[in-house]
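Troubleshooting log. The previous structure file for this entry was overwritten by mistake, so regenerating from the original sequence record. Sequence copied from the archived sheet and checked twice against the printout by T.R.
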Amino acid sequence: MKRSGLLLLLAFVMLAVQCSCRGKTSSAQTDPTITAYDVERDWTNPDRLIPLNFEQSQGKRVFYEKCVWCHAEATPAGPSNRSNVSPTPSLINDGSILNPLSDEFLRNIITLGGSAMGKSAMMPPWGRTLSQEEIRAVIAYTRAVAQPPYHPPARPASQYSVKQTSKEEGSTK
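Regenerated output below.
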């Protein structure tokens, strides 16, 4: 009788431990920074951490190597060069400016430089310095840290339109 009571008590304790472990696991899963590959501190709210996946963390690495000097207020080495550039480049997290731009446009401006895209000639072309994977990663990082947050369009569309020539216009009439 004592043995069956001891077994019953042991089974109850094991069940209680198992249930408490499950509860901790589910609450841990609600915090995305726990399972994130990396995090970035929100520049507008230092108490908030932004979880980053692998691609976004690679974009963060490239950003802090190549882009931080013009697209941040401060760098790991001190003040940025942003105030010395005219026109002043947008901050990498400025969603009000960067969110409306398509990934295609961002890829082209990074690859070809600002002057090729009708923007500042001070933005150098990075297409021969960065790989396409690194450029995609920088865009992913830009989208992750955007404030206000970036919401991808429901249906992606090209940001460029094809201008019809007068010959093409005549054939459609």
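The domain at 32-145 is CATH 1.10.760.10 (Cytochrome Bc1 Complex; Chain D, domain 2). Archived copy saved in two places this time.
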